[in-house]
Amino acid sequence: MFSRPADSLADTPLAQETRDLLRNCVHCGFCLPACPTYRVTGSELDSPRGRIYLIKEMLEHGRATETARSHLDRCLTCRACETACPSGVQYGRLADLGRELIERQPPSPRAAGTRFVRFALARVATRRALFTPLVRIGQAARPLLPAALKAMLPPPQVTDRNPLAWPAPRRARRMAVLAGCVQPGLAPQINAAAARVLDRLGISLVVARDVGCCGAMEHHLGRTAAALDQVRRNVAASERLLDEGYESIVSTASGCGTFARDYGHALRHDEPAVAARGARVGAATRDLCEVIDPAALERVVGEARQARDDPRGLLDGVRVAWQAPCSLQHGQRSSAVGKVEALLRAAGCELVPTRNPTLCCGSAGTYSILQPDLARELRSRKLDSLLGDRPQVIATANIGCLEHLRQASPVPVRHWIEIVDSILAAR
Ligand code: SF4
Ligand code: SF4
User: Fold this and answer.
1) Cystine design at 210: which of 122, 237, 238, 278 (Cβ 3.0–4.6 Å)?
2) Which residues pair with 207 in a beta bridge?
3) Does ligand 2 lie within 6 Å of residue 76's CB atom?
4) Do residues 230 and 202 touch, judged by C-beta distance below 8 A?
5) For residue 175, what are the β-bridge partners?
6) Residue 50 CB–ligand 1 contact under 6 Å
7) Exposed (0-12), middle (13-18) or buried (19+): which is 314, by Cβ within 10 Å?
8) 3-class DSSP state for residue 214?
């Protein structure tokens, strides 16, 4: 797709990058059936091709329109269109640039309520020191809360063991896990479960010190400068860990991992040495499913079964529906596809077939809050496709998907590592 940037933008890196990325699109439309918003609304402007045209128009006219903003706001950045595109269009990067064009020259101020919600998401949800206490207060005051807010807060876990028990760092192999921003408040048991499973596999997991929110949330809200400051701080802290001998920076939230893996690209306009440090950290970042070998897990599960005298495998066969987050199946597709399924099978789970495995659940970071109607419709479609074969539990790999699906699911929704950890603990 040929485009000529407006004179006001012509020499800027933003205009040049956008023009280069637009070039690959041949407007074939193969991406349309893969797009969740197009499947719901049937409108070309809610499709990847339609949004690409809107970005081209902004580039050529040098200003944003209300139409472009509203249809880019409705995009989940799920990147299903990238997986479907035969021409290799990097839609995710294009959408980021489109959003940057809009933030530079917005068509009009957003409504006051929307501005407040976006501000609160950017300033509160990204700071775990603020967000976690707020969640705890909300959980304590749950009976007094309005129903909508109550639904958003996970109930406290009822279990016969401490879900936060974290093994002492005693192994020669060491990895550091991203704490993230909302996950410690909403589901602190996930990283603890990861630490227990990795400990059994001979790896000590510690929380990556001084590493904060990955920066994705502010980036997707169009707060590019603030997001990049956060990225630079994370890169400096992660490099110290790598220099101390930690093998990998592990992410248990695939949305954060996808963004962190791209730190080199995020810092591409910095000094080359800074961009190179970002690339080093990005290359050392792994989703949890990549650092566990299914054969090793199967061996550990077998040993645990023998120790528990369960030769008949009475605890085998938990029926699990696997919900592959878009960030894992489209964002990190070359390295992560099929890995969680292999690990769940290695742990003795039965994976039930699901329909429409590529359909987004509608969570998409802040999307479920900023676009609640579309998000609810997508969630309902996703749950239909996951529950068809009556699973006992839905497994996922991203805190956003987990919380969004949990609010409407009749069966529990868990991070897959929690399921593996509870199988190991039960044996
Ligand atoms: S993004 Fe890819 S699949 Fe979609 S219209 Fe362009 S070239 Fe075709
Ligand atoms: S990222 Fe997802 S929602 Fe956005 S255009 Fe692509 S497929 Fe559609």
Assistant:
1) 237
2) 177
3) yes
4) no
5) 205
6) no
7) exposed
8) coil
pLDDT value at position 174? 98
pLDDT the model gives residue 159 = 65
pLDDT at residue 160, as a whole number: 63
Q: Strands across the sheet with 173-177, in order?
A: 203-207, 173-177, 249-251, 285-287
User: Is 80 touching ligand 2 by the criterion CB < 6 Å?
Assistant: yes
Expressed in percent and rounded to 5, the helix, strand and coil fractions of the chain are 55, 5, 35
| Position 227, amino acid | A
Percent of the chain at pLDDT > 90 equals 80
Residue ranges, the chain, pLDDT below 50 = 314
Structure tokens at 220: 């997707």
In 10 A of CB 412, how many CB atoms? 13
pLDDT of residue 9: 86
Q: How crowded is the C-beta side of 343, counted as CA atoms within 13 Å?
A: 28
State if residue 48 touches ligand 2 by the CB under 6 angstroms criterion.
yes
Which ligand number lies closest to the CA of residue 367? 2
What local confidence, expressed as pLDDT, does residue 39 receive? 97
Phi-psi region of 252 (alpha: psi -120 to 50; beta: other; left: phi over 0): alpha
Cα distance from N-terminal residue to C-terminal residue, the chain: 58
- How far, in Å, CA of 393 to CA of 319, rounded? 7
173: which strand partners? 203
Any idea which residue has 């400990």 for tokens? 199
Query: Which conformational region is residue 251 in: left (phi greater than 0), alpha (psi within -120 to 50 degrees), or beta?
Result: beta
Question: Residue 158 has what pLDDT?
Answer: 62
Distance from the alpha carbon of residue 129 to the mean position of ligand 2, in angstroms? 32
pLDDT the model gives residue 11? 85
Paired tokens of 211: 């590493």
Q: What is the pLDDT of residues 58-106, one digit of tens each?
A: 999 998 999 999 999 999 999 999 999 999 999 999 999 999 999 888 8
Residue 360 Cα to ligand 2 middle (Å): 9
Q: Is the CB of 4 under 6 A from ligand 1?
A: no
Note whether 64 and 106 are within 8 A (CB).
Answer: yes
Cβ 306 vs Cβ 379: under 8 Å: no
Interior angle at CA 273, CA 271 and CA 275, nearest 5 = 70
Q: How far is CA 192 from the centre of its chain?
A: 19
Q: How far is the CA of 49 from the centre of ligand 1 (A)?
A: 6
